[in-house]
TrEMBL record:
Pfam families: BBE (PF08031), FAD_binding_4 (PF01565)
InterPro entries per UniProt: BBE, FAD-bd_PCMH, FAD-bd_PCMH-like_sf, FAD-bd_PCMH_sub1, FAD-bd_PCMH_sub2, Oxid_FAD_bind_N
Signal sequence segment: 1-29
Cofactor(s) this protein requires: FAD
UniProt superkingdom: Eukaryota
Residues of the FAD-binding PCMH-type domain: 83-257
Keyword DNA-binding annotated: no
Record protein name field: FAD-binding PCMH-type domain-containing protein
Family note: Belongs to the oxygen-dependent FAD-linked oxidoreductase family.
This protein's UniProt keywords: Disulfide bond, FAD, Flavoprotein, Glycoprotein, Signal
Amino acid sequence: MKSRPTNILPAVPFLLLLLFLSPPSPATAAAADASVYQSFLRCLETNTAPEDKISDLVYSPTNRTFNSVLQAYIRNSRLNTSSTPKPSIIITPTKIPHVQAAVLCTKAAGYQLKTRSGGHDYEGLSYVSDSPFFILDMFNFRSIEIDAAAKSGWVQAGATLGELYYRIWQKSNVLGFPAGICPTVGVGGHLSGAGYGNLLRKYGLSTDNVVDVQIVDVNGKLLDRASMEEDLFWAIRGGGGASFGVIIAYKIVLVPVPETVTVFRVEKYLEQNATDMAYQWQLVAPKTTKDLFMRMLLQPVSSKTKKGETTVRASVLAEYLGNADSLVALLGKEFPELGLKKEDCLEMSWIQSVLWWGLDNETNPAVLLSRQPESVNFGKRKSDYVQTPIPKASLEWIWKKMIESGKTGFVFNPYGGAMDEVPATETPFPHRAGNLYKIQYSISWKEAGVEAEKKYLGQIRRIYSYMTPFVSKNPRSAYLNYRDLDIGIVQPASKNSFDEGKVYGGKYFNGNFERLVKVKTAVDPHNFFWNEQSIPVLPSVEMWKQPLEMWLRVGDLKLWQTKAHGGGAPIFQLKMLNSVGLGFY
């Protein structure tokens, strides 16, 4: 609840004011944190039903289970160290009114709000920030309702892809959904950032198959497609939902899959003409039938024939919506360099193929309900798009650089098919016709420490630099769900955030970036829903953000700049942060 401002002081020069402020003692800081928690909790209790016992769903660092709640959905050890910034509060809502209250009360508190569904953001933007922040952890929002007859379903943002696939399979063995292969990925971030999987070339992106969305906006209102502007519906299907509000649920279209699909894995090393196979893959994988998705993995590995030497292994993993005989016949004509044989192929149901891709030797679909990943390592990812085939001589040069640089691997994901049929402006995701395949650069390690991180980040960044001549240009495009802070960040307090935002925004969204900015400016003009790579607001709105919303804590005092009561010049308010309480205005 808002309380009336007190201790209104005339505007004073900021540097002069600092002379009167002293650094906080640990006791004062602890008291301030406790005061923030109590005031925030009172706000939540005021805006939720008493029987909900909202206090049981809110965690501060003094709570004995705080660390376990925080770490439960951290999927990158690089972002789970003692020096990683921690939230001041974690909210774990179970009902939509809890989400609405969390938005309003966080806004009143002046903190940043990070929304987490599955925690798979490669840079941890759903649970890490250098600014004071709260986490809205959506893991309790995991309801899934499947209507097989209507070939549709509602899935909440905190559900995982594995849970979604399992619930579809329970209702039908001839329906599926085009999304990723990792079963512990959260639906919320995956779909709002576009999402893709092995059905990409047949049915497009995950977000191409979303027909309705529930979202809580900056004013705490629950909207669906019928009540939101169509521009907002467009934006949150590929533009990243966290820039616009809190995604509650998606209505999805289920797609037909045959009773039998075929998968295979074929590996070749450089000594086995892997270069010929890799080159030809570029010509075949994006152009073959839409029923076939062939992913290629390229990894520096120890040579099996030359002891002590490193080589490159090329692995083609595929899913075909049909039987093995027709697949072998097809690739015998189109891709003889692969050398596919019938014995390389496995025929299975679609749900079994989900297990084959994501969980190797598992055969019981119930394992998809597990939220625990097989392992959590330190890692970094980057992305690129290739629009013309890389010549064989250049591939051989790339292999050399991969071997020299360390352990960075590539994943080539073919486009074409349905991706060529959807206009680049249909959703915020623009990387459609004209792109042969997407590259994911991947490096993982197990050693903790700053030196190990520096070493491996240096490796993947060098490889990324080496690939510059072979990938898209002006801009060098990137995929939002392969989050990469190397390509640019926005500072929340910067008056130039639009200029900063268009650096990475142009790479993720190409020509759709400007439309996303206009939508953002319309629905969240004061940029409450921001993160280090969120959609910024237009500059004309951005310049008012600081006078309206920004505050600064220095020492035992809180300096808050707000707008004067009659629309005049900004004024400053100072309020002691003490154990009595902290008012939110």
